[in-house]
């Protein structure tokens, strides 16, 4: 993987949420993601009855996940295929206190639904984060130079 890909995966690991939806539907919903670099995927835990989970068909649908995390210096629009998953081992691996807050019977709750998002491409803006932003703005005022706002690149998975 390139340095850009490394930056992407490290920063997406440090960021924990974004807005997820299907490309055919302009409504995006806030969701916490769990990265799986080896699989080139992001995972989500949701409820079976949500509009998003209910709209997925076998084989999945084209989807988008948008992450905007100024503290981590990551802004990205990720495209891929979102599908339902019944992978209990992956659910066991991902399950945590945050997820358990949403389900009365924990991971055994019949409403728990795992989603797999297989990434195809991403457009990424990687900055130094909020402190770096403030430094760059102050520096530009002193030097007259344009602030260095980081890197902008695209990735294919």
UniProtKB/TrEMBL annotation:
Highest taxon, organism lineage: Bacteria
Pfam family name, one: Pyrid_ox_like
Domain General stress protein FMN-binding split barrel: 3-148
Name of protein: General stress protein
Annotated organism of origin: Paracoccus aestuarii
């Amino acid at each position: 993987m390139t340095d850009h890909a490394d930056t992407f995966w490290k920063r997406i690991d440090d960021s924990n949420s974004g807005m997820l939806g299907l490309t055919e539907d302009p409504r995006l919903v806030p969701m916490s993601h769990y990265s799986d670099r080896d699989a080139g995927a992001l995972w989500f835990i949701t409820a079976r009855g949500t509009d998003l989970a209910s709209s997925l068909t076998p084989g999945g649908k084209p989807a988008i996940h948008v992450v905007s995390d100024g503290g981590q210096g990551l802004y990205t629009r990720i495209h891929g295929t979102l599908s339902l998953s019944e992978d209990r081992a992956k659910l066991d691996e991902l399950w945590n206190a945050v997820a358990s807050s949403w389900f009365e019977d924990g991971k055994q709750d019949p409403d728990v639904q795992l989603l797999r998002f297989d990434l195809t491409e991403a457009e990424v803006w990687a900055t130094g984060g909020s402190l770096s932003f403030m430094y760059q703005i102050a520096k530009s005022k002193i030097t007259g130079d344009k602030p260095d706002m980081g890197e902008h690149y695209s990735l294919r998975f």
